[in-house]
Amino acid sequence: MTVTEQMPADHLMSRIVDGPGGFSGIDGDAQWAAEVRRLVELRGATLLAHNYQLPAIQDVADHVGDSLALSRIAAEAPEDTIVFCGVHFMAETAKILSPAKTVLIPDQRAGCSLADSITADELRAWKAEYPDAVVVSYVNTTAAVKAETDICCTSSNAVDVVASIPADRDVLFCPDQFLGAHVRRVTGRKNLHVWAGECHVHAGINGDELADQARTHPDAELFVHPECGCATSALYLAGEGSFPEDRVKILSTGGMLDAARETGARQVLVATEVGMLHQLRRAAPDVDFRAVNERASCRYMKMITPAALLRCLVEGADEVDVDVDVAAAARRSVTRMIEIGQPGGGGE
Ligand code: SF4
Q1: Model's pTM, two decimal places?
Q2: What are the EC numbers (predicted)?
Q3: 230 CA → ligand 1 middle, Å
Q4: Ligand 1: which atom is nearest the Cα of residue 112?
């Protein structure tokens, strides 16, 4: 469906340019925000934004949170249309959990380097090598990979999920090698095989950098937010002693916002995608929050621009579709994840 009856949107739409980095040409200003809200109402939609979205997108959304919390909100929302401002696998997860709803993503080219590091064919070939193994996949995977998975996990419940599997069964863990290494260290499990996948953003957060930051900011706390692949390397490195243990807090989204409000530290270093800083600064304006590395920004997340969101609401595109059988199989692995431990990273 195309929404045609609004003049301001037509005027703004004429400025949109489609380039290699996505749609651009529109500022996320008050006029744009008012038009977005009007179009959301007109479509009878719920607008969801992931924590790593641009500040303007977070501020105009109905709900901001981590991917699983948003998928649950999508499933429970009374509206029939979900506009998911995040990367493609997240919108797919919302569709898996809400198959009857229309799920839109402002730009379907917003992928994820971690999700792309294993395909369903590669996973099938790996499973053929270990026919009796249990497959555990991080939520940062495509629907097709989730359909080949026994149990999905988040960074919050990965250890509990693996611990729930009988000790004599091999486990195939994919695609995040840092989360896999963390789980292997914590569980001490030798029969946990880890896929060598990674997120491009975590490259900006390394052990030397963490150790340097600990030295140059001796009074600062370190918050690690491993909800996405961008900070699982920091989770692993903090466990290896790169930062003094008593100053490290491994936190979910909700836990991080609570800790921000309660911290006695004047300065907090944050190992996460830089988008999370917007919410932290809003929650505790007196604390000096600094990214461990300002380059830890996900280019896919930032493809959801003000221009992309406007186009999405006007044109009803891009619609996220998941094959019915794939969705049913993927839903089983996601449901098992929800049954074990604390899958939610908090959320709003
Ligand atoms: S930060 Fe990394 S893991 Fe998260 S969406 Fe971007 S590429 Fe994927």
Answers
A1: 0.90
A2: 2.5.1.72
A3: 6
A4: 8
